[in-house]
Write a structure and sequence with these properties.
- By secondary structure, the protein is of the alpha+beta class.
- The protein has helices at residues 33-44, 63-71, 81-89, 101-114, 117-143, 150-167, 173-176, 180-196, 209-237, 249-257, 266-297, 299-312, 321-325, 328-340, 397-400, 428-445; strands at residues 8-9, 47-51, 56-60, 77-78, 148-149, 346-351, 355-357, 360-362, 367-371, 446-452, 461-463, 467-469, 473-478.
- It is built from 16 helices and 13 strands.
Length: 485
């Protein structure tokens, strides 16, 4: 293909000096690769090249360009094919996260229906029930003056929520401890991410202990999910109307798979249930942890959020959707925490055909690395960009429905914590509701004595499949007598 002379080539773009064969792979660390890319953005600008191995990838940081790329899925770009290949290597199954084209569209309709606001509203009493279990667990910790491992407890909370929604199962890890599914979730997506970013596929020649654990966890999760599918099928056989009015995502997928000519098979059903668990665990749990850290670190924001909760939604046991929807300042706190600490600070895409990104020719198969946090930390877009300032997101209620910018003139399209375009996160509404329930529960029933690390230093941003706060612990003091949930 002859390219117009005005188009630049990726190899000619500025970027860090690369070594033969491995490129820049030795200059980045998987656990902080997002920070390494962001630092290079500051040095080389919002469009540069990096070699992770022998082939160059294009790094894009300008939010308008990133947004355009995300809107061009699934037709122009896809998730990197290497990720799907590595997932299949460990026994991963077809799912909406990995699916492309017509397969993605078939699965997307059912997943979106399961996570639609109407479905979540029907599920709301279960959300409150899980919130009460978390309150009971943290009340016990407060009574014992014990330190709470935020990551562990919040993952139990989010797994209990998503398990009920996805397959109607009350796994109750908050009260019973880890179950077989919970034990393996933490290894799978970070393991796939680690292999996807590796310059050399060493595991195809020899396996390290972490590789054996990854494959064992994938097999264990797959077996557990197939068992849940069989249980659901048996329940549906005793309820002939279940296929017409599925109670949860699993029943909807099974009913679709059983239709004549369906492109959905048992593996696809299992893959999507597994993905809902995997994607719904870390993302929301980490967002809650970051938010609690910011609130405790900013006394005025904590005071204002606490006053709002205690005035409008004081009792977790009596939460209503209307109450939670009225918590405007808490909602602004959530948006600000996700701007500063998005759990997905980057997103790699693969070009499906020769294309152009800005003035750069991008051949088919090229990886385009989208940096999602660069512009949302730029002073040109956010005044005092590094500061936690929830007020910047507040919009008068009568204008909120039609607002595209805040009262400070900030475009909401700059920060993209849930992605953008057709493949934006289907669980956005559920995630925001989970965050509000957990944080409002804390502010309504406890005093936050501390949120921090054992060292007293700010928590590190640790990149697995998503970005988590390293080593955050919390201490609470009960404000009122907590009744048994």
């Amino acid at each position: 293909m002859n390219n117009p002379p005005t188009l630049r080539q990726i190899k000619n773009l500025p970027g860090p000096r690369a070594w033969p064969l491995v490129g820049n792979a030795l200059q980045v660390k998987v656990s902080r690769i997002h920070r390494d890319m962001e630092q290079w953005c500051l040095r080389y600008g919002p469009l540069f090249r990096v070699y992770l191995g022998r082939n160059p990838l294009l790094v894009v940081a300008h939010h308008a360009t990133v947004s355009a790329l995300l809107r061009d899925r699934p037709d122009g770009f896809r998730r990197p094919s290497v990720t799907a290949f590595i997932s299949s290597e460990i026994g991963g199954l077809s799912n909406i996260f990995m699916a492309e084209g017509a397969e993605w569209r078939n699965q997307r309709r059912m997943v979106m229906a399961a996570f639609a606001p109407r479905a979540i509203k029907e599920y709301f009493p279960v959300l409150v029930k899980v919130g009460l279990r978390l309150r009971k667990r943290w009340s016990d910790a407060a009574a014992q003056h014990a330190s709470i491992d935020l990551s562990a407890d919040l993952k139990r909370y989010t797994v209990d929520v998503i398990a009920g929604l996805a397959f109607g199962q009350d796994v109750n890890t908050l009260e019973s401890g880890d179950n077989v599914i919970q034990q393996h979730l933490d290894r799978i997506l970070p393991g796939i991410s680690r292999r996807s970013l590796s310059a050399v596929p060493y595991w195809r020649y020899f396996r390290l202990p972490q590789d054996r654990r990854l494959e064992q966890s994938s097999a264990a999760l797959r077996q557990a999910v197939y068992s849940l599918i069989e249980q659901a099928r048996q329940r549906m056989q005793h309820n002939p109307n279940a296929g017409d009015r599925p109670a949860h995502l699993l029943e909807a997928l099974i009913a679709a798979a059983d239709q004549p000519g369906s492109a959905i098979d048992n593996d696809t059903v299992a893959g999507n249930v597994s993905t809902m668990l995997l994607a719904g665990e870390d993302t929301t749990a980490n967002s809650i942890a970051w938010l609690l850290y910011f609130l405790r670190s900013h006394p005025e924001a904590l005071r204002r959020a606490t006053q709002e909760v205690q005035a409008l939604a004081p009792d977790c046991a009596a939460f209503t959707l209307a109450q939670l929807d009225s918590l405007d300042f808490l909602g602004a706190c959530i948006e600000e925490a996700m701007r500063l600490k998005p759990v997905a600070p980057y997103l790699p895409l693969e070009a499906l055909a020769d294309t152009t990104v800005e003035d750069v020719h991008v051949p088919a198969g090229t990886i385009v690395w989208c940096v999602l946090r660069h512009d949302s930390m730029d002073e040109k877009n956010f005044t005092n960009a590094a500061t936690f300032d929830p007020g910047r997101w507040l919009v008068p209620r009568d204008a909120a429905e039609h607002a595209t910018s805040t009262s400070s003139g900030i475009s909401r399209g700059i920060a993209m914590p849930f992605g953008a375009g057709p493949r934006t996160c289907p669980g956005r509404y559920l995630a925001l509701l989970e965050i509000k329930i957990a944080v409002a529960m804390v502010l309504g029933h406890f005093e936050i004595e501390s949120v921090g690390t054992d060292s007293g230093l700010p928590p590190e941003e640790v990149m697995g499949f998503v970005m988590s706060p390293g080593g955050l612990k919390m201490r609470l003091k009960a404000l009122i007598r907590i009744e048994q949930a």
